[in-house]
Design goal:
Layout lengths: L3 E4 L2 E5 L4 E6 L9 E3 L3 E2 L2 E6 L12 E3 L6 E2 L12 E2 L7 E2 L12 E3 L6 E2 L12 E3 L6 E2 L12 E3 L6 E2 L11 E4 L2 E3 L4 H6 L5
Parallel strand pairs: 3-6, 4-7, 6-8, 7-9, 8-10, 10-12, 11-13, 12-14, 14-16, 15-17
Antiparallel strand pairs: 1-2, 2-3, 5-6, 17-18
Length: about 200
């Protein structure tokens, strides 16, 4: 289970369901700007993007994830300053902490149905992020997930959301958050957070 398997630009490690992509080996190659991650490694599905797998891969502009991926790891794409586009597969269920933090060129993201939790700081400091679509399946939004997103405008929270942790939209001055028909801006955002405070 501990063996590293190399395939193309990537390194993989076996997990219980298939393989985790653990490393992108050519992050300093300026000629590689678009990446398509394989859906199979060693005849088993690629199910996870591992922690820090693409950390600070600054030349990557586009990533295509396979439909087999169910989890994106801690800091998986953090600091990819030129990343403009990434698809999130329909089978995805978990986005871990800081996974896309500091992706300063990312302008939009659509999180698919089936995702139940977005980890802390997942999209923090994505300065160009304007558009976010959240799924109805989402139950937990971690602390400061969309903080310091300078261009983020309207975002609609699913009616079934159960946890909205502190400072989710801190320093995102332009954002308007819609929840159950009411709109919240930075002027009244604390009212929104108060709805999720548990005794």
């Amino acid at each position: 289970m501990s063996d590293i398997y190399k395939q193309g630009y990537f390194e993989f490690k076996e997990n219980d369901e298939g393989y985790t992509l653990t490393a992108y080996c050519t992050k300093n190659d300026q000629t590689v700007t678009e990446i398509e991650i394989p859906d199979v490694c060693n005849q088993k599905p690629v199910t996870k993007i591992g922690d820090c797998a693409f950390l600070e891969s600054n030349f990557v502009k586009k990533v295509v994830l396979p439909e087999s991926v169910v989890q994106i790891g801690f800091e998986a794409f953090s600091g990819c300053e030129n990343l403009e586009h990434i698809n999130l597969p329909s089978g995805l269920t978990v986005i871990l902490d800081e996974s896309f933090s500091g992706c300063t060129s990312l302008m939009s993201i659509e999180i698919p149905e089936g995702v139940k939790r977005i980890g802390e700081y997942a999209f923090n400091s994505c300065y160009m992020l304007e558009s976010v679509k959240l799924p109805q399946s989402l139950k937990i939004i971690g602390s400061r997930v969309f903080s310091n997103d300078k261009e983020l405008r309207e975002i609609k929270l699913p009616d079934g959301l159960e946890e909205l942790e502190s400072g989710v939209f801190a320093y995102s001055e332009k954002v308007c958050v819609v929840f159950k028909g009411k709109t919240y801006t930075q002027e009244n955002i604390e009212e929104l957070y108060d709805l999720f405070v548990t005794a």
